[in-house]
Design a protein that fits this description.
Elements (H helix, E strand, L loop, with lengths): L8 E9 L1 H8 L3 H9 L3 E7 L2 E7 L4 E7 L4 E4 L5 E9 L2 E8 L2 E10 L2 E8 L2 E9 L2
Antiparallel strand pairs: 1-2, 1-10, 2-3, 3-4, 5-6, 6-7, 7-8, 8-9, 9-10
Helix pairs in contact: 1-2
């Protein structure tokens, strides 16, 4: 089972399945979905004890959040939603749970075969994005 430290580093998107459907489910409009589909972001994860920093960089937009595991914080997502978010490290995975306007979504980051696998779930819609380590 992975440790939080093993998730650290710069990861580059190499595969994405179901991202448009996921963006549509969370309420992202068509124009922003088209731009999001073209982006090939890097995900940079760092941690210091139980404080985690996740930065997503692309040519279109860079977003970042920092949190203490288990503590709720307000997150502004790449599509502009303001969510109440809690991150935990459970069973070798960084689990980010977002709630807003009576809705909820979960983003899980875990290692599989040396790659970072990010699973985004809302309702019955699941998106899987795979990243390879750059540094």
């Amino acid at each position: 089972m992975a440790t939080l430290k093993q998730l650290e580093g710069r990861w580059r998107l190499v595969d994405s399945q179901g991202f448009d459907e996921y963006m549509k489910e969370i309420g992202v409009g068509l124009a922003l979905r088209k731009m999001g589909a073209m982006a090939k972001p890097d995900c940079i994860i760092s941690c210091d004890g139980n404080k985690v920093n996740v930065k997503t960089e692309s040519t279109l937009k860079t977003t970042q959040f920092s949190c203490v595991l288990g503590e709720q914080f307000e997150e502004t997502t790449a599509d502009g939603r303001k969510t109440q978010t809690v991150c935990n490290f459970t069973d070798g995975a960084l689990v980010q749970h977002q709630t807003w306007d009576g809705k909820e979504s979960t983003i899980t980051r875990k290692l599989k075969d040396g790659k970072l696998v990010v699973e985004c779930v809302m309702n019955q819609v699941t998106c899987t994005r795979v990243y390879e380590k750059v540094e």
